[in-house]
Amino acid sequence: LLADGSRLPVKDKSYDLVSLFDTLEHIDDDISVLKDSYRVLKDGAFAIITLPAYNFLFSNNDRAAHHKRRYSAGEIKRKSELAGFEIRKVTYINTFLFPVIFSALVLIKIKESLMPVANPDKTNISFSVPKPMNSLLSSIFCFESRILKNISFPFGHSLVCIVQKKK
């Protein structure tokens, strides 16, 4: 199904789950998408939303990926509640790697401010990572996901938001 997320061509209360994985940051009117997601969910059903965190991290990577914005936990909570949802969990993710990501991004942003970006269409997924490094990063991320079952992190590179339509 290819459709405008703010006017989904489906009946009210027809879905058990809506997933918005790295979607809202690409859309001008993110609240209308949240409202239409609410409309198509059955009573008591859930939506899972993932988003890039913190506008201060906005960089060429976001421009190349056509992002309109990045989010804070408070912002996605407010927008989800405006759409009618009850918040079940909001947490930052990619927390353990955040110090490394943040440091690298600060250096990249300094470089971008001093000289033109060599290839503005390249994103962070334009580059390959050696297999051992990828395995290490994946292990760290998987370990973090197990911890998130019991707690929420106060900072990170991305956000996960789980919301529920009122019963």
Give average pLDDT, whole number.
Answer: 93
Q: Share of helix among residues? A: 25-40%
Instruction: Calculate the terminal CA-CA distance, rounded to whole Å.
Output: 27 Å
Number of strands: 4
Shape: globular
Low-confidence stretches: none
Total helical segments: 5
SSE pattern: EHEHHEHHE
- Decide which structural class fits the backbone: alpha+beta
**Biggest sheet character:** 4 strands, mixed
How is the largest sheet built, in terms of strand order? 1-2-4-3
**Rg result:** 17 Å
Strand content: 15-25%
Explain what this protein looks like in three dimensions.
It is globular and about 50 Å long. It has helices spanning about 30-40, 60-65, 75-80, 100-115, 130-145; strands at about 15-20, 40-50, 85-95, 160-165. The longest helix has 17 residues, at about 100-115. With about 170 residues, it is an alpha+beta fold. The model has no long low-confidence stretch (mean pLDDT about 95). Helix 1 (about 30-40) links the parallel strand 1 (about 15-20) and strand 2 (about 40-50).
